[in-house]
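Standup notes
- DV: blocked on the single-chain target, sequence here:
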Amino acid sequence: MPISIRPLHPVFAGEVSGVNITADISTADFDAAMDKYALLVIPGQDITDAQQIAFSERFGELEIPGSASNVTAPEDRRLSGPVADISNLGPDDQLLRRDDRQRMFNLGNLLWHSDSSFRPIPAKYSMLSGRIVPDKGGDTEFADMRAAYDALDAATKAEIEDLVCEHSLLYSRELMGFTELSAAEKNAFTPVLQRLVRTHPVTGRKSLYLSAHAGTIQGWPMPEARGLLRDLTEHATQREFVYRHKWRSKDLVIWDNRQTMHRATRFNDTEVIRDMHRTTVAGTEPTVPLPMAHAPAPA
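- DV (later): unblocked, structure below
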């Protein structure tokens, strides 16, 4: 039976009803819905990490969190395997201190971004499960990058069509003032190349591929590149393109990183627990041919 979806926003995002992801459901129906809505909210999913992994793996190979995506040592990870820890908790399940290095790094999630755009082959879907959610704050905002592209004037579309950006966690953390990185971390965060305009492989619809991880444009002086990227980000995150999700316990939210950007919003994270578990379906192809997708590290 086809899944039932209620639109949540005029241009994208929908809420799925009557679904238990641990049951035998059609991934084809979900893929078709994702192609249309780019973001799906599935409420009432009381799941374990193993169940979340099993569901996520129906859509492809999963990314494994590692040194390329954070500053947490493997032995200090609170969650294991392909489950990323999107929380304000340490390995002892206690709230991170205000000056904790992991917390400082994670504050980069407050910036508009696309998951894993800093990988040569960027992510397809992200699936975030709300295990413990705050009563106030801690919402997640999502922007439809297809609608944002459609709204650009013809001259801007022509200007950006073939541009290629450098993406790295070095750039997004620099914006937050997080610059004290070890040589090994800087090496792990070596920039990669991504097209600024992407075309969806199924629908053929174009979208902007923006992220706080995008720090410059190939062949452009950095100040000029960052000026254009900032203008495009401001355009793409206007209210008419943005859906803000107020989390409920046991919500599962799935979004297509090829067609959206997102960001966390602030809450009292040194006193209130926000425990979210994320699985990420890996992409299958680069936006720029390999090995060209690797860019030289910034000086």
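- Follow-up: The first strand starts at residue 4 and ends at 7.
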